[in-house]
From TrEMBL:
It is found in: Golgi apparatus, Golgi stack membrane. Pfam families: Glyco_tran_10_N, Glyco_transf_10. Residues 88-191 form the Fucosyltransferase N-terminal domain. It is an enzyme of class 2 (transferase). Pathway: Protein modification; protein glycosylation. It comes from Daphnia pulex. This is Fucosyltransferase. It is a single-pass type II membrane protein. Belongs to the glycosyltransferase 10 family. It comes from the Eukaryota. GO terms for molecular function: alpha-(1->3)-fucosyltransferase activity. GO terms for cellular component: Golgi cisterna membrane. Gene3D superfamilies: Glycosyl transferase family 10, C-terminal domain.
C-alpha cells in the first residue's frame, strides 16, 4: 500500500516537473522570437526536458571568463550574412559537452583558422553551420535542419562501447550525418584529442652536440636506474577480448606488476614510478578496433618506458618504428617474454627504443582535429555529403572490431 502511494506521488511529481520544464522551454523559444513551430527541433518530451534543465543550469554559470568571451564573440556575429566564408562560424556542440569551449581549442592548438566559436547554447541551432553530436552522450537530437548545416558524428569510444540504442535509432542511423569526426583515420575529421599523438619534429637538429650528448647521458642513467621489468596500470579487470588472460600467461615467464583497481596501489605517483623503475608498460586496449589507440599508448612514451601494445590498430600509422613492441608480432606470450628478457640483459639494445625521441615529440592533447573542423566549416567548396547508414560505416564495413582473441594466445 505504501509503495503504491509513493509510486503515485512519484508520477505526480514527474508530470508536474515535465510540465514546468515544457513551459520554461516554451518561454525560452518565445524569447528567441521563433514563431514557426515547424522549424523547432522535435524532441521526445522527457529527453528534451533533461536537456533544457541542464541548459538552464549552464546559463546560470555566466560569471566565467570563457563564457564572457563566448558571449562577446557571439554578439559580433552578423546573423543575416552567414554565407560569407570569412564570417565567424558557429559550431554547436549538441548534448552534454562543456559549454565553455568557445574558441579555446583553436587558440590552444594554434590553429591556422580560428574564426569559429564552439558553443553548447542550443538556442543557436538554426544559426549554426556545424552541429557536433557526440553519440555516447546524446539524450536527444535535432530533427529539423537547414540544408547548409553539417551534422557531425563524433565518437572517441570504440564501437564496442557505443550506445547501441542511440545508433540503432533509424532517425539518427540513416541519412542523418554529413561528416564523421572520430579517431579513425578515414573519418572526415580525424580527431585524437585526449588520446594524444606522436608528432614528427626536427627537435635534435636545433641542439648542439654537447646538449645532445648530455641528453644521451641522462637517458643512459635513467635506463641503468630501471630495476623492474613490466608494469600495468589497469582499471577494467576483465574484458571481452581477454587481455587479462594474455597478461596472466605473460606473467608465467616475467614479473608483471599490476597497479590500479585490479592490482595494488602505486606507492606514490604512478607516472614517476613508471619513469624511474620500469622498462616496459603494457598498453593493452580493452577492445581491438581499427585505429583504436588510446592514451594508454602515449603515456609510457612520455614517461620514458617502452609500451608493449596489443590492439586492433596498425600502430605503424601512429608512431615511429622501434618506439613500441607489438605483442601480436610474437607467436605467444612466452616468445614475447623471451624478447623482453633479452632486452633486459642489454642496455644498448633497450636504449634503441628511445632513438625516436631525437626527431619526434609527444602531445598528450592533440587538438588538431578541431582546427580541421573549423577550416572545413569555412570551406564553401566542399560538396554536400550524407552517410546513408552511419552504423554500417562505424561498426560494420571498415570499422569492425575483433571479438575473438583465441587464435593469438
Ligand atoms: C568556468 O569554466 C571553467 C571550465 O572552463 C570551470 O572550471 C569553472 O568552474 C567555471 N567557473 C564558473 C564560475 O562557472
Ligand atoms: C556578406 O558579407 C560580405 C563580406 O562581408 C559582403 O561582400 C556581402 O555583400 C554580404 N552579403 C549580404 C547578403 O549581405
Ligand atoms: C647537462 O646536464 C646537467 C644536469 O642535468 C646540466 O647542469 C648541464 O648544464 C647540462 N649541460 C648542457 C651542455 O646542456
Ligand atoms: C601496417 O601498415 C604498414 C604501412 O602502411 C603496412 O606496410 C603493413 O603491412 C601494415 N600491417 C598490417 C598488419 O596490416
Ligand atoms: C546533410 O545531410 C542532410 C540529410 O541527408 C542533407 O539533406 C543535406 O543536404 C546535407 N548537407 C550538406 C551540406 O552536406
Amino acid at each position: 500500500m505504501r509503495k503504491r502511494v509513493s509510486a503515485a506521488s512519484y508520477y505526480l511529481m514527474l508530470t508536474s516537473f515535465i510540465f514546468v520544464v515544457c513551459f520554461l522551454a516554451f518561454i525560452n523559444y518565445q524569447h528567441l522570437g521563433v514563431t514557426h513551430s515547424s522549424i523547432l527541433p522535435k524532441f521526445s518530451i522527457s529527453r528534451a526536458s533533461q536537456q533544457q534543465v541542464s541548459h538552464a543550469n549552464d546559463a546560470e554559470n555566466t560569471n566565467n571568463n570563457t563564457f564572457k568571451n563566448l558571449n562577446k564573440k557571439t554578439n559580433q556575429i552578423d546573423l543575416s550574412n552567414q554565407s560569407s566564408s570569412d564570417a565567424l562560424k558557429i559550431i554547436l556542440l549538441w548534448s552534454t559537452w562543456s559549454s565553455t569551449m568557445a574558441d579555446e581549442p583553436l587558440v590552444k592548438a594554434r590553429c591556422p583558422v580560428t574564426s569559429c566559436i564552439f558553443t553548447a547554447d542550443m538556442s543557436l541551432i538554426h544559426q549554426s553551420d556545424v552541429v557536433v553530436l557526440y553519440v555516447d552522450t546524446l539524450t536527444d537530437f535535432p530533427l529539423n535542419r537547414r540544408p547548409h548545416q553539417r551534422f557531425v558524428f563524433a565518437q572517441l569510444e570504440s564501437p564496442d562501447n557505443t550506445k547501441m540504442a542511440t545508433i540503432n535509432d533509424p532517425r539518427l542511423r540513416y541519412d542523418y550525418f554529413n561528416w564523421t569526426m572520430t579517431y579513425r583515420r578515414d573519418s572526415d575529421i580525424f580527431l585524437r584529442d585526449y588520446y594524444g599523438s606522436v608528432i614528427k619534429t626536427n627537435h635534435y637538429s636545433k641542439l648542439n652536440t654537447a646538449k645532445i650528448s648530455n641528453i644521451s647521458q641522462e637517458m643512459t642513467a635513467l635506463i641503468r636506474g630501471k630495476s623492474k621489468l613490466v608494469a600495468w596500470f589497469v582499471a577494467h579487470c576483465s574484458t571481452p577480448i581477454r587481455r587479462e588472460e594474455y597478461v596472466r600467461q605473460l606473467s608465467d615467464f616475467v614479473t608483471v606488476d599490476i597497479y590500479g583497481r585490479c592490482g595494488k596501489d602505486c606507492p606514490s605517483n604512478c607516472d614517476d614510478l613508471l619513469r624511474t623503475d620500469y622498462k616496459f608498460y603494457l598498453a593493452f586496449e580493452n577492445s581491438w578496433c581499427p585505429d583504436y589507440i588510446t592514451e594508454k599508448f602515449i603515456r609510457p612514451l612520455v614517461y620514458d618506458s617502452v609500451p608493449i601494445v596489443l590492439g586492433g590498430a596498425n600502430y605503424s600509422h601512429f608512431a615511429p618504428p622501434h618506439s613500441y613492441i607489438n605483442a601480436r608480432d610474437f607467436d605467444s606470450p612466452k616468445e614475447l617474454a623471451d624478447y623482453l628478457i633479452l632486452l633486459d640483459k642489454s642496455d644498448d639494445l633497450y636504449a634503441r627504443y628511445f632513438d625516436w625521441k631525437r626527431d619526434h615529440d609527444i602531445t598528450l592533447l592533440d587538438l588538431s582535429g578541431w582546427c580541421d573542423l573549423c577550416e572545413m566549416a569555412h570551406d564553401d567548396t566542399l560538396p554536400a555529403k550524407t552517410y546513408r547508414d552511419i552504423k554500417q560505416w562505424w561498426m560494420l564495413d571498415d570499422g569492425e572490431c575483433e571479438t575473438d582473441s583465441n587464435k593469438y594466445f
